[in-house]
Give the backbone structure.
Amino acid sequence: MTQNEAYAALAAHLKTTGALEQVAGVMGWDQEVMMPPKGDAQRAEQMGALEQVLHARRGDERIGEWLAQIDSTQLDQAARVNVAEAQKAYDRARRVPSDLAEALARKTAAAMGIWAQARKDSDFSGFAPVLDEILTLKRREAEARHEDEAELYDVLLDDYEPGQSGAMIAEILGRLRNGLVDLRENILASGKIVKPLTGSFDADTQMALGTEIAKTFRYDFNAGRLDKSVHPFSSGNNGDSRITTRINPENPFDCLYSVIHEVGHAVYEQNMPAEHAMMPAGFYASMGVHESQSRLFENQIGRSREFCHHLFAKFSAAFGDQGLDAETFYATVNRVHPGFIRTESDEVFYNLHVLLRFDLERAMINGDLAVNDLEAAWNDRFAADFGQKVDRAANGALQDVHWSVGLFGYFPTYALGNIYAACLFEAMQKALPDTKANIAKGLLAEPIGWLTKNIHRHGRMVPPVELITNATGRAPDERPLLAYLNAKFGDIYGF
């Protein structure tokens, strides 16, 4: 077999595997959005069966034979990435037993419904046993894959943020935390009170306005759709990239900014290089980069004074006079408050939410925290960082879907995303001096085009830190984020 034949066979295998992974993604979306309640057990069997097929394909002995015939130095950039990612997935699949991969797929599929019910009942004890089972399985997976990583957690973190470690992220977030604490104290010392929005806001009107905003942010509804779910999320890629939001009749910002956040994810996926669809080179660079797009859409653009003034007119037309002017609306959107829910959190407290989850999940995977102690550990940490007691489990350790589906190592990517977003927005404004003026008009084609050119179109062909560095002209760090937050909230709160 020639090198060209070996690569062609590998590429065909990878594309079929990628297509089957997309099938699994659609099934996951369906489970959260459309599937009837009694379908949980059946879906668990389906997902388990599909994972069995996928695991076998990733560890297929022919991949090793094809890889042995390929000299990556003779390939173009995309093909080199495909080969490297295939090698990584092959090595992982060979280390993780098929029965373990299948068990994880079945357990996480079944756990989602258990988590949703426990969250509804605000009963951590109803979820703890299945979470303990998932944790045990994820630790087994990490142990099977562990090579020279410093800690078990690093194995799982690599799935979302290649090249990072728990220790490295702890250092980055530690520096960020110091700045956030100082900012929080300045806000509290200002004595300024920004009142929350009050009232009841029609669900259908929220969805209609959310749809309009999604279009403003260049979301292509011919390649996606907007639905409701318990926890907002984005799913899919290229020509089928779907988003969800949730409705709170008393807080329309929950719906609207969840839409903007998820649109950030989806637009990234819709603008991936189509020629590499279903191939590793066409995947996102990392979850930190993915989150940078959602957070930049949501915060630097969506919560800016310019966009809030633009949104105010649409909001008033949809819901009527709320007794606010545009500037008060802007302050209300950006109100700082130590709330329970991460997805509803302001920009100051958001990273404290992430730090809490990062530290707890890292401790669980590394064997330093048992599931039975998780709720108490969560509540103690929240009281220390946010200055109030968790009132019920649904507002505490049960609020996020991530652990129920086995996403250990995912949470710190939110904070990295915030750091990357601030770096990108700083560079965008230098490259496009009319950025803020266009945002004020709801004209986002140019800034999103800049992101497509510098981030989206590269897929996975450039490593994450290098990608951000190339786009911004400097290695990413926390300083642009802290500068942005201090300028913004210093202005709003008058210090």
Q: What stands out?
A: The chain is about 65% helix and 5% strand.
